[in-house]
Structure formats: C-alpha cells, structure tokens
Amino acid sequence: MMAATTLATQRAAPSTVASTIPSSVQTTTPSAPGRQESGNAVSLRGLAKRFGETSVFADIDADIAHGEFITLLGPSGCGKSTLLRAIAGLTSLGAGSIHIGGDDITRLPPQRRGVGMVFQHYALFPNLKVADNVAFGLRMQKVPGDERARRVDEVLRLVEMQDQAHKFPHQLSGGQCQRVALARSLVVEPKVLLMDEPLSALDARIRRHLRDQIREIQKTLGLTTLFVTHDQEEAMLMSDRVFLMHQGRILQKDTAEVLYTRPRDENAAGFMGHYCLLDAVEAAPLLGFRSQAGRVALRPEALYLSVQGRPLGGERPARVGPGVSGRVRRHRLLGNIVRYDIDCDGTSLAVDTLNRSARSLLPAGCEVTIHVDLDEVQELDA
C-alpha cells in the first residue's frame, strides 16, 4: 500500500511529487492509455442556452488546453454555473457543440462524458460513510471490490482524509465534506474536473486552505479543470486563465494578471478591481492630455498622493501626470492597504497606499495632490 503523501511533503520536495501520486488518479501522465498528446482537452463552439424567452448564455467559444486550470468568473446570474452544468450534461443546450479530448460529447449522458463534478453543497449521501461515498461512482462502473478499495484509499490519502473514511458526513466539517466530494470526483479518473463554487459556503480560513489544496492537487495531477466562482481573489490566485463572463457572454479570456491590469472594456474593469472609471474629459487634467478613448480606467495603486509637496508612500514611477488637487473624504483600512476616497472637484478617485503603522492616517478634509502613473492608464474599448 502506498504511504500517505501530505501536501506539505509535496511542497517541500516538488521533484518527487509525480512518483508519489496514486496510479489510479494519474490522469495525464504520458503512459496513460488513450491520452491525447495534441489538440485541446475541451473545445466549446457556439454554445447557447435559453430558459423560455430569457437568454442564459450565447456565443460561447473557447479552447482549453490539457492540464489547464480555467476559472469561469462573473457576477451572480451571468450564466457561468449553467454553462458548467451544460458541459457536464446536467442541462441541455439550445445550440452548439462540446468536444472533450477530440470527441463530440454534446449529446452523451452525463455518465459517459468523462467529467467529474464537484458542487457547492457537497451532495454527499448522508447514510453512507466517507469511503462508501467516494466509492459510489466506482460501484456504478462495476469496478471489482479489491481495486475499488485500493483506489478509494489512494484518493482519500491524496485529499488527506484517510483517517476519516469510517465517518458519516454529519460528523465532518464543511471543509472535510468538500474534500470528500473532491475525492469522489477524482476516483473515477475524469478527463475534465468541473467545480461549481465549491468554496463559497465555507468560512474564510477553511476556504483559503482548501483553495490552496485544490490547486496543488490539480497541478500535481495535470488535470484539466473548470472552476466557477464570483470571487475575484479566488480566480486570480488559482487560475492559469480566467474567462470573465457578463450577461451570458465571455467578455475576456486572459491570464489573471492581464485581466486585472488590462481589462478590455468598462464591464471588465468594473468587475475585476476597484478601478476609477473616468471619461476622457474628466481624466484630462490628471493625465495631462486628452485620451482618444471615450473612457479610461485607473487602478487605485496607480495613483499617488502628496501632502504639501511631500510624497505619501513609496517611490514614484518615472512617468506621472501633472497632478490635480483634491480633498480626503474618508479612509478605509484593508489590512496592509489604506484606501483613500478623494474628491477632486466632484470627481471621486480611490487611492491605495501601504499601511505603515508608524505613519498617521490622513484625516477627512486633508488637502492632497494626486498624480497618476501614466504607464498604468488603461484606455477602454467602447
């Protein structure tokens, strides 16, 4: 029997991780039979879905590489969970096609699509122990008992739940239940793992731990994963790429860094950060020129404050605008960041500075000068 391998061990010795992963869940190793080395793991073409007269999503086109971690990000009601359920076969499509590993699975039932699904609320059987919950899919596949027991033990070790195999779901914490749900999806060796807001019902501390654990396991296995969330921080920390959705369409497909620093339009900028969105006329005094774009977006950390000519915060960038006068309306402590709301003749700007405990915070009414890093000005598409 394979010795238990904790994630702490994996982090300490990354070069040995591959050799310690259970053989039953090494889904993307070169020796795996039938593995497709070229092409995409998932291809979506022209997907559309309506509920009556309401369009849920439309014109969904995307290619996802083998081993990629993709996050479907967007506000509630944008269609991201319904899209994930359509890929899983739990919701019918109105139009379009889905290919997994080159195979058209659009009309296949869920159990024949080669996907694993992890839901927000676990969906564990309350009358079954942990080991039996994990083994359920293998029983449906009629996997022999000895192999079934071995695979269940291996995957429970992978998610660090081997000591809880004898317990019922009501005896577990929320984070433990979600790890059991993850193990149940992994044990059937899916080609693609689908996760629908699996962390949103957990408290912050457990959510952070499980977020890191999911990403660690996904990277170790090289398992193609689609992950749904409305949490920008979660998306930025976990993803290879983020598909930002708005009103049933994908606005932008990019790495988290590109999506945050170079949003394509106002909707993307408004959702991805605390951007200051200004029209060209409003922005001109701050920039020192009239932008050719109709709107510009400024991140709070790209703005700098001075008080009576004395810079507040760190070193200034090489290229800054001429500066405009303003007045502090209020400040908010955000851990290591202080966010100032500044009124500039009726235009509201948010400015982030490092929270240095030895320095007094600027009070409401304090007069300041604001400069912008001109290399961080984002001109938005119409």
Automatic annotation (TrEMBL):
Residues 42-272 form the ABC transporter domain. GO terms for cellular component: ATP-binding cassette (ABC) transporter complex. Keywords: ATP-binding, Nucleotide-binding, Transport. Residues 1-40 are annotated as: Disordered. InterPro entries: AAA+_ATPase (IPR003593), ABC_SmlMolc_Importer (IPR050093), ABC_transporter-like_ATP-bd (IPR003439), ABC_transporter-like_CS (IPR017871), Mo/tungstate-bd_C_term_dom (IPR008995), P-loop_NTPase (IPR027417), Transp-assoc_OB_typ2 (IPR013611). This is ABC transporter ATP-binding protein. PROSITE patterns: ABC_TRANSPORTER_1, ABC_TRANSPORTER_2.
